[in-house]
Specification:
The complex is a heterodimer of chains A (about 280) and B (about 300). Helices cover about 75% and strands about 0% of the residues of chain A. Chain A has helices spanning about 20-45, 55-70, 80-110, 110-125, 135-140, 145-170, 175-180, 185-225, 230-240, 240-270, 270-275. In chain A, helix 3 (about 80-110) runs parallel beside helix 6 and helix 5 (about 135-140) crosses helix 6 (about 145-170). The radius of gyration of chain A is 24 Å and the shape is flat. Chain B has helices at about 5-20, 65-70, 110-120, 125-130, 130-145, 160-175, 190-210, 220-225, 270-280; strands at about 20-30, 40-50, 55, 80-85, 85-90, 95-100, 180-185, 210-215, 230-235, 235, 250-255, 290. In chain B, helix 3 (about 110-120) crosses helix 5, helix 3 (about 110-120) runs parallel beside helix 6 (about 160-175) and helix 6 runs parallel beside helix 7 (about 190-210). Classes of the chains: A mainly alpha (about 280), B alpha/beta (about 300). At the A-B interface, helix 7, helix 8 and helix 11 of A face strand 6 and helix 3 of B.
């Protein structure tokens, strides 16, 4: 007798149960943490001054001092200060990029004349690596907030415009013709038929664009800044302070994870039709 | 009805164009590159009186959906006259409703919002607010009319195929258009709900007597529903040169007699004889009718080109 039971783990027919799957998903995390602990202890045993792989307790101590003790020079909690500065930049940048990209993309997609004029142009400029124009932004907008936010806006808006443009053309022509037979004006078609259907797609696009936005943020902060998570990480590099850098990287990862989950929650709560039909 | 004199034919055509709901005369439509276009519709003449339920059939690729798109105003003919109540048809507007095979409903709106949409789209904001109760009631009326009360709060993807098409019909009906166009609306339904939905359509048509053009590839459906059956086909012969680019024409246009709100008729011998006849004439590429032998016996049938 062969193949009378569906395997739990091996092969293409495997169907791990929910609880089993969750347990399995923990394994790589545990292995990663254990490996780190092992090598860190090993290096510290050889040289107690080693800075490359700090122990968990060293990182906890560093994190505590960054998060819960006031910095003597600035009289502020550094982690909080850095987080607020970075979040402000990324939220403003991505929000502006979303509004601009949505509006441009929809208009180019719906009005084929506009698409014919601007479509190829936007697809071309969206290929420009935004980091390559960062020096231009610093020269144009100065080295403070505006240049950093502009980098996120430019990088995000171009990608969002392009994505929205392509998404609008996926809406079946039938829907637009049907709206015409229901007496819709052109504006009504754009703002009452197309726009509501583009919002969930915009959220999905933002989830993808956020990854690049964090990259732009950290790069811009690394080059010219006085606060921010990216600034701190690059500053700490000069002090060889891995015990600060690693918690900061984890904190950044966690923030990105929370953003993504929050956007997914918005999708599932307010755009059920989209989640269930895509 | 074959008219010997060309002049007489044109007089008749222009008389029909004043009284018909939909008037199609000398319509040509081709697709493809300008250097080598493919002619789809080749001098199509069709005049439809108010209240007719015309079923349009033909072999695949004959351009029946193209013809419907022209009447709908999704596309414009290359040349020829296309009138709705003696006015140029132009691009899609409120004068005609449409039910597509799919994508008729807006996925982000609930059933009742989909049905109410027409009323809301055509009103300015303040009126929409002032009349919101009335609009909702009208939508409810349409939904009750089609037996969809229990579905009002559902989203389109939660409905069965048959219900979705009924909602699409309600969505069009709320605008009370004089014309409803249907492009293989029941093509994706299983046989049971298909028959059910056909009956619904006939009941609505009995009630409102709107003019319907119903495109289908199912001959049984065509013969069962229509008051008039039109076959469009690219397979015919005429005395033009062999290398002439031919497109589809109306090769048969007949009145259907049996009007029944019951599906029992589907098993009667006359009904099946009619289906066999239509299949023989329209769907056997080998069996090419000559232009002179087209059966255009429907009283409103006309033809402006001499054979």
């Amino acid at each position: 007798m062969k193949n009378t039971r569906i395997p739990l783990f091996w092969g293409i027919h495997a169907q791990p149960g929910p609880l089993f799957a969750r347990t399995l998903s923990c394994i790589p995390f545990i292995i990663a943490v254990a490996l780190y602990g092992h090598f860190s202890a090993e290096r510290l045993r050889v040289n107690s001054e080693d800075k490359i792989l700090p122990s968990f307790s060293q990182m906890a101590k560093a994190t505590y001092s960054m998060a819960f003790t006031k910095d003597r020079r600035t009289d502020d909690y550094l982690l909080r200060k850095d987080t607020v500065a970075s979040l402000k930049r990324i939220v403003i940048g991505v929000s502006v990029a979303a509004v601009v990209g949505l509006w441009l993309g929809i208009n180019m997609g719906v009005f084929r004349g506009m698409g014919a004029v601007f479509g190829a142009f936007f697809i071309f400029v969206s290929i420009i690596p935004p980091l390559a124009v960062l020096p231009i932004l610093f020269m144009t907008f100065g080295v403070d907030e505006l240049a950093k936010i502009m980098l996120i806006i430019i990088g995000g808006a171009l990608a969002i415009t392009r994505s929205m443009y392509l998404e609008v053309s996926k809406i079946p022509r039938e829907q637009i013709i049907k709206a015409c037979t229901l007496g819709a004006s052109q504006m009504a078609i754009v703002y009452r038929i197309i726009l509501p259907q583009m919002l969930p797609r915009l959220i999905d696009t933002i989830r993808i664009v956020l990854g690049a936005s964090w990259l732009f943020l950290i790069a811009a902060e690394a080059m010219a800044s006085t606060e921010g998570l990216g600034y701190r990480i690059y500053l700490m590099q000069r002090h060889f302070a891995m015990d600060v850098i690693i918690p900061y990287v984890l904190w950044l990862t966690f923030l990105g994870f929370v953003f993504d989950r929050a956007l997914r929650w918005v999708l599932e709560t307010f755009f059920r039709w989209y989640c269930e039909t895509k | 009805m074959i008219h010997t004199s060309e002049l007489e034919a044109h007089e008749r055509a222009s008389a029909l164009s004043r009284t018909s709901m939909i008037h199609i005369q000398d319509v040509y439509k081709s697709y493809g590159p300008r250097s080598k276009p493919k002619l789809v519709l080749d001098n199509v003449d069709l005049s439809i009186a108010p209240g007719e339920l015309v079923t349009l059939v033909g072999p695949s690729g004959c351009g029946k959906s193209t013809l419907l798109k022209l009447v709908l105003g999704q596309e414009l003919p290359d040349s020829g006259k296309l009138l709705i109540e003696a006015n140029p048809a132009g691009l899609a507007d409120k004068r005609r409703g449409i039910v597509f095979q799919q994508y008729s409903l807006y996925p982000h709106l609930s059933v009742i919002d989909n049905v109410a949409l027409g009323k809301r789209l055509s009103l300015p904001l303040w009126q929409r607010i002032a009349e919101r109760k009335q609009i909702r009631e009208e939508a409810m009326f349409q939904l009750r009319n089609l037996g969809l009360e229990e579905a009002i709060g559902k989203l389109p993807h939660e409905l069965s195929g048959g219900m979705r098409q009924r909602v699409a019909v309600a969505q069009s009906l709320i605008m009370s258009p004089k014309i409803i166009l249907m492009d293989e609306p029941f093509g994706a339904l299983d046989p049971g709900s298909r028959e059910h939905t056909q009956i619904f359509l006939l009941e609505l048509w009995e009630k409102y007597k709107m003019t319907v053009i119903f495109v289908t590839h199912d001959l049984e459906e065509a013969v069962f529903l229509g008051t008039r059956l039109v076959i469009l086909s690219q397979y015919y012969s005429d005395d033009r040169d062999d290398d002439c680019r031919r497109g589809s024409r109306v090769i048969q246009d007949i009145a259907l007699s049996s009007r029944a709100l019951s599906t029992e008729v589907k098993s009667s011998p006359e009904f099946n004889a009619m289906i066999d006849h239509v299949r023989e004439i329209g769907f056997k590429p080998k069996h090419r009718l000559h232009v002179k032998d087209f059966n255009l016996s429907h009283p409103n049938s006309f033809r402006t080109l001499p054979e």
